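Z., the sequence and structure:
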Amino acid sequence: MMKWDAALYDQKHDFVSKYGEDLVTLLNPQKKELILDVGCGTGDLAATIKKAGATVIGFDNSTEMIATARKKYPDIQFDVRSAQDFRYDMKFDAVFSNATLHWVLEYENAIKCIYDSLKPKGRLVAEFGGKGNVSNIVTALKLALVNHGYAELAARQVWYFPSLSAYTSLLEATGFRVVFAAHFDRATLLKDDNGIRSWLQMFGKPYLQEVNSEKMETILQDIEEQIKATNYKNNQWYADYVRLRVIAIK
């Protein structure tokens, strides 16, 4: 399992939670509702949901993320669990998930767990990487790995970026009624001059953590050179995000 750097996440990648605030608006949490935050990270969006008056439980499969969430928000229940095989004794009015489900390769299991965790008429509100997400970065990363002797690492499947039709069909096959779905581009500004490197160090670990330290710099330079024309604008790095957003009712 990949170890997450929770401090780096909060310092350099807080855009994940900031973009998720718009998703909380779509969730529209109500007082007395019980809401589950799947892949809660360091807890910022769970705290936003709680401020609306709902009761929220958050979980993440990263012990590092959950440890930080518990320190930041001690009045919220945070658990270490996996999205592909979780279960709670209670049923939820809503399941919320931001920037998480593309990490879950057992995605059909995750959908089933989410469905089973909801009350009748309960809702799923989720956003994650869709088809084409960070395609420039991924293509350059894999080519750089192959170029420098790491073809086996390049062949790893790390993310699940489905099309709108593929994912909504899975939701419907499980029993959900999809009431909203959108697949859209969202170029995302990355912090400081090391934006792409910081992004790779945070999210590309499954590809890079076994790379020889002597080759790491060469690989990172290779990636930067490949995508500078497409992802570096006005002296700033951008990630070529493509997001999939859905609302579905049990």
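Strands lie at 34-38, 55-60, 77-80, 92-98, 118-129, 177-189, 232-233, 236-249. The chain has one domain: 6-249.

Let me know what you think.
H.
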